Amino acid sequence: MDKNKIKHYLIMAASTNHMLRGDLLLKEQGIHTALVPAPSEYGSVCAIAIKLKTSDLEKAEKILKENHIKLYRIYPEKIKKLSGLVEKLAHSVISNDFLAVLKKIEEGEELTYEEIVLLLKTERKAEIEALFHAADQMRKEIIGDVVDIRGAIEFSNICRKDCKYCGVRKSLKDLERYRMSEDEIMEVVHQMHAIGMQTVILQSGEDLWWTPEKILSLINRIKDETGMKITLSIGERPREEYALYKEAGANNFLLKIEATNEEIFKFIHPDDDYDTRVQCSNWLRELGYLNGSGNIIGLPGQRSEDIAKDILYFKDMGINMIGVGPFLPAKGTPFEKYEAGSVEMTLKAVAVTRIVCKRVFLPATTALATLDRDGQTKALKAGANTIMLINTPAKYRYNYQIYSEKNMVDLKSAYKAVTESSRKFPPYLKVDWEVFKDAGHTEK
To answer: Rounded to whole angstroms, how far apart are CA atoms 344 and 128?
Structure first.
C-alpha cells in the first residue's frame, strides 16, 4: 500500500494500560492523537486504538519504543466504502441532492456541514430508511455486530447545579435526596463483575461531598477488587482532579456538551459557562481519557443546523463516546411543560453521527427507550453499538430521574433490543440468555 495515499494509521498496544499510557505520551510530545474503537477485524468490541496522522507515525513509534510501550500492531486506516449502497436504492423515491450525499457516503468521503443538515432535515420515508441503512452498514463495517453492554450506578442525586431541564436540579424541594456509601457502591460493582461486565459507569449529580479523596478511594477499590474499567460522569471538576482520577485508574469520562449553540446552552444551564464546559472536555482529552460527550435532541429553540454543528463538534474534538438522546421533560422543572423531543429526529441524529464520526461508541440511550419502548432496538438499527444498563439499587433508582418516568434498562430489555436488531451479545458476559428468551415467549 502506498504510504503517501494513507492519511491516518491506527496503533494497537499490547494492553489497554499501554494504549492509554502511550496516547498520553504522544500528546505530551505534541502529536495530535485520538483514541478510537478498534475496527472489528483488529480487536474485540472494547478494544481501542490510537489514531494519528501518517506524517507523525515515525516519530510516534520512536517515542513509544523509547518509553517501553508494548505495541501489538500498526495498521493503515482503511477508508470504509459502503459497496452497493446506492445501487440498492435504484427504485426508491429519493431526491438527486440526497442521492449525491449517499454516493459520497458510499465512497467514504467526508461530508460538509450543508450535507449533514440535508440528511437531518429529510422527512421523506424512503430517504430516512436509506439514511438508517447507511448508518447501520457503516456500523457493521467499522465496529462489527457485537453490542457493548455497560452498567451505570447512579450513586448520588445531590447536585450543586440548577439546569432547567433536569430532574435532580438543586432547586427541586420535593425530591428525596440520597447518597450511596462506598460499600453500597462496591456491592453493586461486585454483582456486575460476577456476570462478566467489564465497565462500570459511576454517575451522579455534581455532589461536592464526594471529594477527590473519596472518589480516589472508590476508584482504588474497584481496580483492586475487580480490575473493571471505570467511566466517571460526575460533572465539571478542576483539571487537577481529573488528573488524579486518571492516574488512579479511571479510563473514561462522560461530560456532555448537550448543545453547542451557546444561546441554547446558556438558556438551559443558567449557572454554567459554555467555555468552561469545552475546556473541561479539552482537559479530559489531554489527560488521555476516552472522552465522552453528547447532545439532547428537541431542546427549545433547537434547529437541524444546531444538531449538525453538535455532530461536527464531536468529530473535531475527537470524542470517543457520544450519547444522543431526546429531550424529556421532568416534573417540577421550568421545562416540565415543554414537548418531548422527536424519536425520528433523535434516530436521524444517531445515524448521521455514526456516518460522520464513524469509529465511535454510540449508545442506544435510556432516554430513547423511555420515549419509545422499541427505541433501543431502532437505535441499534440506525448506527448505535452500545447499551448502558441501570444498576442503581431499586431503593434509590426512582429518585434519580433526570427526566420523568425513566424506563428501566436491564438485561431483559437489553436482550430484547439485541435480538430484535439481529445483533450479537458480547462474549465477556456470563449470562444465560436462554432465560430471557424463555421469559419473552412466556409474556407473548
So the answer is: 9
> What span, in angstroms and rounded, lies between the C-alpha atoms of 82 and 325?
26
Closest CA to 429 of 50, 44, 83, 167: 44
- The mean of the pLDDT values for the chain is 92
Give dist(CA 197, CA 252) in Å, integer.
15
Q: Would you list the domain boundaries of the chain?
A: 3-76, 87-142, 148-440
Could you tell me the maximum CA-CA distance found in the chain, to the nearest angstrom?
A: 65
Tell me the C-alpha distance between 130 and 281, whole Å.
33
For residue 362, which of 390, 382, 389 has the smallest C-alpha distance?
Answer: 382
Give the pLDDT mean for 276-295: 92
* CB contact at 8 A, 238 and 206: no
Closest C-alpha to 234, from 226, 224, 245, 225 = 245
Cell of 374: 422499541
Percentage of residues in the chain having pLDDT higher than 90: 78
Beta bridge partners of 49: 36
| H helix or E strand, kind and range, residue 200 | strand 199-204
Cα separation, 94 vs 332, whole angstroms = 44
**What confidence tier does 442 reach under pLDDT thresholds 50, 70, 90?**
very low
User: What is the rounded distance in angstroms from the CA atom of residue 359 to the CA atom of residue 320?
Assistant: 8
Contact between 48 and 19 under an 8 Å Cβ cutoff? The reply is: yes
Beta strand 386-390 pairing with 148-156: parallel
pTM of the model: 0.87
Rg of the chain on CA atoms, in Å: 21
Q: Provide the total of helices (H) and of strands (E) in the chain, helices listed first.
A: 17, 11
In this structure, the number of other CB atoms found within 10 A of the CB of residue 275 comes to: 8
Spatial distance between the Cα atoms of 84 and 56, rounded to a whole number of angstroms:
34
Phi-psi region at 144: left, alpha or beta (left = phi > 0; alpha = psi -120 to 50) = left
Strand partners, 33: 52
- Sheet with 148-156, edge to edge strand ranges: 321-326, 290-297, 252-254, 229-233, 199-204, 148-156, 386-390
| Burial bucket for residue 27 (CB in 10 Å: 0-12, 13-18, 19+) | middle
DSSP character for 288? T
| CATH fold label, 148-440 | TIM Barrel (3.20.20)
In words, the CATH class of domain 3-76 is alpha beta
Amino acid letter, residue 220: N
How many other CB atoms are found less than 10 A from the CB of residue 291? 25
